[in-house]
Amino acid sequence: MLKNYFLVAVRTLRRHLGYTMLNVVGLALGITCSLLIFLVVRHELSFNANHSKADRIYRINVDKMDQTGPTHSSGTPSPMLATFKTTLPEFTPATHIYREEGGTFAIEPTTAQGAVKRFREEEPLLFVEPAFFELFDIETDGVNAKEAIKDLNTVLLTKSIAEKFFPEQNAVGKTLRMNNLITLKVTGVIPDAPTTTDLPYSMLVDYESSKKINTFMNDSWNSTSSNQQIYFAAPEGASLKQAEDRLNEVAAKYRARAPGEKERFVFQPLSELHFDERYSTFSDRTVSKTILWGLALIGMFLVLVASINFVNLATAQALRRAKEVGMRKVLGASKTQLMTQFLGETGLITLLAVLLSVVLAELLLPYLNQLLEVEIKLYVLQRPDVLLFLVILLVTVTFFAGFYPALVLSGFQPISALKSKVATARTAGLSLRQVLVVLQFTICQALIICTIIVHNQMEYFRTAELGFDKEAIVTMPMPAGRASELMALRSELEAHPAIKSTSFALTPPSYNMDMKMSLRYDDFSIVRNFDVNVKVADEHYLKTFNIPLIAGRMYEKGDTLRDFVVNETFLKRVGETNPQNALGKKIQINGGQTVGTIVGVIKDFHLTSLREEIEPVLMGTFTRFYFFANAKIEAKNSKAALAHLQKVWSTAYPDDVFDYEFLDDTVARFYEEEARQSYLFKVFSVIAILIGCLGLYGLVSFMVTQRTKEVGVRKVLGASSASIVGLFSKDFTKLVLVAFVIAAPVSYYFMEKWLQDFTYRIDISYWVFLAAGALTLLIALATVSVQALRAALSNPVHALKTE
Q1: In its keyword annotation, does this UniProt entry include Transcription (predicted)?
Q2: Rounded distance, CA 493 to CA 514, Å?
Q3: How far is CA 431 from CA 211, 301, 425, in A?
């Protein structure tokens, strides 16, 4: 019996090859997208899940609230860990982790004739304590990692870095010099960090060595850096709320607060790090679970759109198979047998689509990995979850797409079927087929609307005024604490006509690193605990980045903090309404160790992405903290400018590796996730429209076949080709318009919620909806018109002879 079902299904599908191909291709497109989305969602949800203590590991964050709203940080003061261990000794192990964003490494030659090898490593490295290996399950390939980094100036290299630094050599026992500040001894080689971690590393260095690298590090409770974080394991059954209260009670003795300002150290589960956009991670990547579930929903919609195609085409084909059904029933076939036959045909089509989707997914994965900067493998046979997902899809799509058509076809009455007098169900004046077309195009139009809005927001990011000039500015990292060597060559740097201006600073205006401190203002009676962002920079900073002064002057050249320039937001935080009134006021920072005078006020500029509000800024000179050289160059002569910069830089730092980046690329990295979302929306919208068009094409093909004789009669009576095309198009036009009425408000609701994540955002304009509706209507009409025009141009004599 099963063999007979299979043979009949194969013959039927071969007989109607066009119908079969439309369904296989449509289903394969939807299933391929859903499979790729499943792989992405699974990849993101697996972050930080490989540790045995994952459900008990927490990070200490700090939440603040003042009159301007909440702020969140993952950085903690240096003394916090000792206080934490004393206050909560049962919460162990607990450890500091400090991240350094790459560095310059020098490898001494192994022979007298060899040359020093120098590398610029961009991948982050972590400075960790032995407790790090008690807390996290780090693969070490048998290396005793706790012992390997217990001594000062010791390092564990990952295999890829060991091969890069010491090719075809045993790296253990070798030394390397980092940033010309510390010499590290290699005590072991361990496997590369997993790709699904928010603690990525190219090497692990003993924590004490970080104090020579991190010049910000001090024992002040009022200074934090997001590059230094604390992690710990909570005991089974511990009350985290009570533990938080105990820690905050102790910390309050050291962290003074201004009236109305609130601050609380909070414990964040390791499982939430990757999905909480309020706090940073060492991977510099967070993904909202809302986005992930949105992607999953899009995957479901694409499969649904493809399944709707199948239902529409199957029910449209019902008339073609009516006599077959009638004959089978006359010969004794039961309804159950007929349903089994038709579900079997659907299952065979779906199986072909699934197999094709696996091939397509394997071909597309490299491009997806490149787009998302991830490493995802398909491994259908090796990964039970992937295989289970495909089986679930196969069964679900077979049932959803096949059940109703099988029910309709098997339910025909033999006499009516043999006379081809059958009809499909109608709901509120619409056939089910029309309802499904409306649903299909509602999804398509919603995706198009979302795509346009996401694209517009990305364009806003790209073109928005940031308060400084980011075009044709080159930023070059310098060895820590050695800015004076390049500053001495400023005249040589600016001697080339393609170099317009240079400046030395802690960071460019917008950069994913900052230095924050609390302060006392004016009479010093109140500690202002609102995290002023200290931007140390030389006197040429405003000129180089074209940041306008609105009051006072720029400070003069100096080696240490003495005079200050502040921004407009700073004035709002301290209650000044007139910039002139702030000039001459005193500021005390760094626990009272530094006192300076405000000499100028600048306009606000964006320090990070447009998701965040502009922070209060305090600028001053401090040569020891100049980590970047910045140069404004002529864009048309950039090649010569870069060559000149490298030449002068190499003169100042012959033992280091020259590296640079254009500032507009740095700013663009703030929006990498949104750019990827925009691209994915575009791709999925195109695929949804393509699937919908395949379905429309098939539907109109059947309609044309069914109404061939009617078209012939109309042409004989003088109907024009345009009127015949209009005959087939008007019904679908109505359906697309109904879909638009549903899609527009739904899309507006969800995109308005998405835009709320951005402090600076676009307004959703009505033209977005009109453009999406018009585009969908044009595509649908073009698809319908292809087949309708073919019918209109056919010979009416042949049409009238059609049986």
Answers
A1: no
A2: 26
A3: 73, 21, 6
What ranges in 115-258 are assigned the alpha helix state H?
A: 131-135, 145-148, 159-165, 210-213, 240-251
The average pLDDT across 240-249 equals 92
Residue 374, C-beta contacts closer than 8 angstroms, at least 6 positions apart: 40, 43, 195, 368
Question: Based on the number of CB atoms within 10 Å of its own CB, is 641 exposed (0-12), middle (13-18) or buried (19 or more)?
Answer: buried
What are 322-364's pLDDT values in tens digits?
556 666 656 566 667 767 777 777 788 888 889 999 999 999 9
Structure tokens at 204: 């692990």
Chain-centroid distance of CA 227 in Å reads 21
- pTM score of the predicted model: 0.79
Query: Residue 476: beta bridge partners?
Result: 629
- In what helix (H) or strand (E) does residue 156 lie, and over which residues does it extend? strand 154-158
CB atoms closer than 10 angstroms to residue 116: 10
Structure tokens of 6? 């299979």
Q: Which residues are CB-contacts of 26 (< 8 A; sequence separation ≥ 6)?
A: 306, 309, 310, 353, 691, 694, 695
The alpha-carbon radius of gyration of the chain (Å, integer) is 33
The Cα–Cα gap between 44 and 8 comes to 44
Query: Cα–Cα distance between 579 and 470 in angstroms, integer?
Result: 26
Dihedral over Cα of 300, 302, 305, 307: its sign: negative
DSSP state of 669: G
Tally: H helices and E strands in the chain = 26, 26
Q: What average pLDDT does range 661-671 have in this prediction?
A: 86
The amino acid occupying position 14 is: R
CA pair distance 680, 113, nearest whole angstrom:
53
Single-letter residue type at 645 = L
Matching residue, tokens 């345009």: 722
